[in-house]
Amino acid sequence: MNMHFEGSSSVKLLFDFWDVHGPAGMVLSVFVVLLLTVFYELLKVWKVTIGKQMGSSITHSSAPVSFSPGASCFAPVMKCQEGSSSLTNSPSEISLAPTENTAITADTTAAAKKSWLLHCLQTAIHLLQVTLGYMLMLCVMSYNVWIFLGVIIGSVLGYFLAFPLLNHI
């Protein structure tokens, strides 16, 4: 395989079935690669947007939440409020004390579920972004000038279209 850029209209991209022969196939392939690169840039913005939503859902929680070192990372522990019950004085009996405000617990549980779901969505987007990034890198490694220009122009176009959206979030 040649290790220098060529300007031919024949190239094999990513898979055996994506074998380009001729100018029409090259134009279509460059357009597809350009769209994939724009989608890659949009994924980056979407992942940041979800990260901001995760941060806002945690800070807007009305219940005071702390995480105890011995507990699971996903199990929020409500801070105990001083009360008249004698059970609150014994650490082993705290779990037996009746909860006074179940609405706070429900809000905290809903916020924790939302945060967990947003994290799962952000992880899936990251997986898609990494996969697409490597596929685009392999397209560039075909050493075809037109495919390379499609990736570069798609990246510029995607950045131009996607990143102004971050100011509106």
From TrEMBL:
Key words of the record: Copper, Copper transport, Ion transport, Membrane, Transmembrane, Transmembrane helix, Transport
GO cellular component: late endosome membrane
MF-aspect GO terms: copper ion transmembrane transporter activity
Stretches that traverse the bilayer: 20-43, 143-166
Topology in membrane: Multi-pass membrane protein
Entry keyword Transferase: no
Keyword Membrane: yes
Cellular location(s): Late endosome membrane; Membrane
Ranges in a coiled coil: none
InterPro entries in the cross-refs: Cop_transporter
Domain of life (superkingdom): Eukaryota
Similarity comment text for this entry: Belongs to the copper transporter (Ctr) (TC 1.A.56) family. SLC31A subfamily.
Descriptive protein name: Copper transport protein
Organism name: Cyprinus carpio
Gene: LOC109113218
